[in-house]
Amino acid sequence: MICAYRIYSAVFMRFASRVQSRNVLRACHSNSAQNVQEFDALTEKYEELKKENESLIDKYKRALAETENMRKRSERLVEEAKTFAIQGFCKDLLEVADILDMALKSMEKEKMKDDSLKNLYEGINMTKSSLMKVFTKHGLVQIAPEGRKFDPNFHEAVYEVPVDQAEHPPGHVSHVLNVGYCLHTRPLRPAKVGVVSTK
């Protein structure tokens, strides 16, 4: 009896499997038009989502690049602010340097007979030297361009020297009336110069 039951079970399972396969095939054939429409709709939706995703990725990359550029720009501005924060103070000290130069030029050490005048001269000279060391320490550099080509970024032409009276070629600085200064790479005060005429 158990044997007959097993045979009956096996036959029933085969039959059920075939019926199920046929039902699946029928369902597939009957729904194929609907499935094609659903597939097309899903494909279209996929393409839309893909384009939207690419657009979002592009916007993200641009925002990231813009943020990085802003960070770099901010860092550069902070560095420039640190570097050039003393610019106003340096301009004020240039007048002191000019006064010390005029004082030294007005006194001729060789003609001084009095020791107190010689000591005064030495004191002014030492003060000027100390001031120049401090300038150099903080990136303030003197521009004394005699003999160099005239550059309007660093020189201010006060007058022209005729070519036949000049020791330098045309377009070059012949005389320096007042030295200029640069703070790091930025001109703080142009040198006032006489330029050899190019005419």
From TrEMBL:
Q: Which organism is it from?
A: Meloidogyne enterolobii (Root-knot nematode worm)
Keywords, in A-Z order: Chaperone, Coiled coil
Enumerate the Gene Ontology biological process terms: protein folding; protein import into mitochondrial matrix
Q: Which Gene3D superfamilies match?
A: 3.90.20.20, Head domain of nucleotide exchange factor GrpE
The UniProt entry, under PANTHER family, shows: GRPE PROTEIN, GRPE PROTEIN HOMOLOG, MITOCHONDRIAL
**Similarity annotation:** Belongs to the GrpE family.
The chain's coiled-coil residues are 32-80
UniProt-recorded Gene Ontology molecular function terms: adenyl-nucleotide exchange factor activity; protein homodimerization activity; protein-folding chaperone binding; unfolded protein binding
UniProt keyword Coiled coil present: yes
Stored InterPro entries:
GrpE, GrpE_CC, GrpE_head
Kindly give the HAMAP family that the UniProt entry links to this protein. GrpE
Q: Name one GO cellular component term.
A: PAM complex, Tim23 associated import motor
Protein name in the entry: Uncharacterized protein
